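[job 4471] stage=fold_predict status=RUNNING
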Amino acid sequence: MGGNAVVVGGGIGGLAAAIGLRAVGWKVTVLERAAALDDVGAGISLHANGMRALDVLGVGEAVRAEARPQYTGGTRVPSGGRLARMDGAALERALGTPIVGIPRSALHRALRAALPAGSLAVGAEVTSVDVSDPRGVRVSATNGGEERVREADLVVAADGVNSRLRAQLFPDHPGPVHSGSTVVRAITEAPVPLESDFELTWGRGAEFGHIVFPDGRAEWHAVFNSPAGVRHADTLAVIRRRFEGWHDPIPALLDATDPRAVLHHDIHELVTPLPSFTVGRVALLGDAAHAMTPNLGQGACQALEDAVTLAAALAPAATSADSAAGVRTASGIDAALARYDAERRPRSQAVARAARRAGRMGQQLSHPVAVFVRDTLLRAAPSGAALRAILRHADWTPPRLG
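[job 4471] inference complete, writing C-alpha cells
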C-alpha cells in the first residue's frame, strides 16, 4: 500500500510509529517541536510487551545493549521492611524477557538511529491539521518563523499528554487532568553500590524508587501527593527533607545526584477516555491518546504497542485483504485506521484505568489506617501475586509487519 505519512512528535511513540510505517512501505516525516534534541529525561523500565514491540520494529537488540535486566528487587516500606519481592528470573521464564531499565536518552537514540537521515525535522511546531478532505490531511507547521503546509495521506498525532492535535480534533473533550501527584527524578552522576536492580518504597502519600543501568549509575524517582504547579528553588533539598529517615540506599542516591540534573513534573492523565483514536486520516498514539499515571510502568510500553499495531494495520497485505473482503470504507487506509482503533482503544484504556487504581491503592494512600491495611495485605499475598500482576498487562503478542 504505502503512502505519505507525517508523524507529529519525536518521542518514543512517534519515533516507533515512524519506524513501523517505513517498514511497511510508507514515506514518513517526523515533525518535532523541540529546536534541539537534548535528550532530557531520566530512566525508564520496559516490560515484555514493550520489548516485543521493539523486536518487531527491529531495534530490540540495540535497546538491550543499552539496558540492564531487572532480576532483583521489589517493594519496601520506609523503615526498610520488605512488602513484596520481584522475581525477574521467573518473569523471564514466563515471558521470554525480564523487565529492563534504560536511560530515556539511550532509548531515543536507538529509535532515531533506525530512521534515515533527514526524516526527522526539529523545531517544527505543528499548529493545525485540516481533515476536511477525506482523501488526506493538510498539516500546517512553523519552523524558524516560516509556515509550511504539507499534504499527507496519514497523520500520526504523537504529540504528548498536552496534545495540540487532540484538542483540535476533540474540542469538547476536557483534556488531561492532574492526578494529584507530582514526580521528581534524576540519574546519579556516578555508580552507586546497590543490592537490587529495581526497587519501590511506599510510604504515606509517597513513593521512592530506583532502577540501575549497565554502567552502575541509577535513576531514582520520588512521587508524592502535591497540588499542581508547586515548584521549589532547590528541589533536591526538598526531596531530602520529604524522604528524611527513609531506608538506605535512598540517602546515597540523593547524595550522588547533581541538583542541576533533577527534573520535576506534575503527573497528568486522561481520566475521560477518548471516544476514538482516529479522526479522518489522523491516528492518535501514546500519551496523546491515553495518557496514564506511571504506577504500572506501562506508559511507554502502550505507546510502543500502538506504533506496531498501527503499522501492521497499514501494511499492504492487511489493506489489500480488506479490499478483497469488501470491508473497507472509503479506502484501505480508512479500514486500517478503524481496525487500529478497535484493537488499541479497549486495551490501552483498560491499562490506564488499572494504572489509576494502582496509584490510588499504592503510592497515593496517605491515611495511616489505609496504609497499614495496604501493607498488611501485601505482606500476606502469595509469592506469585506480584508476578501475576505484571503478566496481566505485559503478556501481549504483537502483530507481524508484513
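[job 4471] summary: Residues 71 and 87 are 6 Å apart (CA to CA).
[job 4471] exit 0
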